[in-house]
Amino acid sequence: MASATHGHGHDHRHGDGHSHGLVDASIKRSREGLRAVIASLVILGLTAALQVAVFVLSGSIALLADLVHNIGDALTAVPLGAAFLMRSFKAEKYAGYFVVATIFVSACFAFYESIDRLLNPEDLTHLWALAGAGAIGFLGNEAAAWVRLRAGRRLSSPALVADGHHARTDGLVSLAVVASAILVALGLQAADPLIGLIVTVVILRITWHSFLTVRNEQPGEPTSRPPS
């Protein structure tokens, strides 16, 4: 009888697998967040690398504004990744504010370069390659946005959601590079820096909406979309 009782207890503890198969929820969340951050970093890194090659050929200020923004967007993976490793909502919130600051700095850079190009115009070359780079930027940002938004909403991470909306709008900004190439091809050289200024306005709008998203979210609340 004792032997049978012992066998039953042993089977109960190990047979169902639950007592030894549990993974702390915060650890699972950390792992999922890290996977999303790393995946989006790889996507945006490849996108920026392709755009660098085209910028060297074309010299487009609209592409430069988009390129710098994409690089900054990719680098936001560093504090976000650290926050998920720490498993801290407060750290995620600080990472979200870092994302907002990065977006703002890229807007300032785009504004400066656009004004400089208006005052010191240069002819663009390799327009087909320039249009292709804009298309690459759109596809890369859309892929990164999908990864970030999907994970951010599932994990209720305001920083990840803000960065996802950031990437999605960046994709639309990349389409402005395509428009720049088309207009310059039609003989409107001033279109390139002017579109750079439009990109600046769009980035500033992203900055404000992302700030509101990060500031207003609370732990455990479902993340919301920024106003359109």
What features would you describe in this structure?
This protein has 228 residues and is an all-alpha fold. The protein has helices at residues 2-15, 18-21, 25-58, 61-75, 77-86, 89-119, 127-155, 158-185, 191-216. It has one domain (46-216). The chain is built from 9 helices and no strands. Helix 3 (25-58) runs antiparallel to helix 5 (77-86), helix 4 runs antiparallel to helix 6 (89-119) and helix 7 packs antiparallel against helix 8. The longest helix has 34 residues, at 25-58. The chain is elongated, with a radius of gyration of 23 Å.
Mean pLDDT across residues: 76
Biggest beta sheet summary: none
Amino-to-carboxy terminus distance: 71 Å
Rg (C-alpha, Å): 23 Å
Structural category: mainly alpha
Instruction: Tell me the domain tally.
Output: 1
Helix content: over 70%
How many H/I helical runs?
Answer: 9
- The backbone outline, from C-alpha atoms, is elongated
What percentage of the residues does DSSP assign to strands (E)? under 5%
Number of strands: 0
Unreliable stretches: 9-23, 222-228
Order of helices and strands: HHHHHHHHH
